[in-house]
Amino acid sequence: MTVTWEESGWEQVAPGVGRCRLPVWDCTAGLVVGTDAVLLVDAGSSLGEGARLRAEAQALTGRRVTHLALTHPHFDHVLGAAAFAGAEVFGAVGTDTALTGRGREELRADAVRHGLDARAAEEAADALVRPHHAVRGERTLDLDPGGGRQVLLANVGPGHTAHDLAVLVPGDPGVVFCGDLVEESGEPQAGPDAVPSHWPAALDRLLELGGEDARYVPGHGAVVDAAFVRAQRDALAARFGVSR
């Protein structure tokens, strides 16, 4: 038996499109429901959190998650990926290198520094799944064989990281999952892997994709509109001295 968005605790952003805000780091996970396929956007911070997302998605849709899009390779968005056995995993070109070898160890250490239990971090890092599909430019996913639900994956970075992937769901309204290119619950975080000189241009690309009437889902915080994204773009340009 499926449950409603309200019963599940998820927020419906548009018909067949929802998101939830995960505890501790207030990270967003998104869900896009097609006729034959289900796309999850980001996988949570641990195998336990990934398993919770998998169960909630199945309760909402009556089907397993078939596609997983990783918006960027930070621990709170990717360490739950191994919980989605059988799903096709997508990431921006270069994401795989950030999830293997030294990159994997840095993810584990970063998770522990931010408060994740060391054993949970090690378990998730050891099981970490690399993307099966590297997105260069744009790629369309067909979640409905009749063409009723198509999703655009767009490699819009670099910006927050060197490998930022946005997910556009056309509709009325359209929905753009922004990853941490946009944050609402705090100032956008620019760590050592950020590319500040390109970040404002990445937000311009988000605005081109979604347009004025879309709903923009940040990696952390409440759903926002185009005006919020534009204001954050201008603030980042001023903060990092990037001219338009």
UniProtKB/TrEMBL annotation:
Give the Metallo-beta-lactamase domain ranges. 26-220
Q: Which InterPro entries match?
A: Metallo-B-lactamas, NDM-1-like, RibonucZ/Hydroxyglut_hydro
What domain of life? Bacteria
Q: Which Gene3D superfamilies does the protein's record reference?
A: Ribonuclease Z/Hydroxyacylglutathione hydrolase-like
**Pfam families hit by this protein:** Lactamase_B
Q: This protein is called what? A: MBL fold metallo-hydrolase
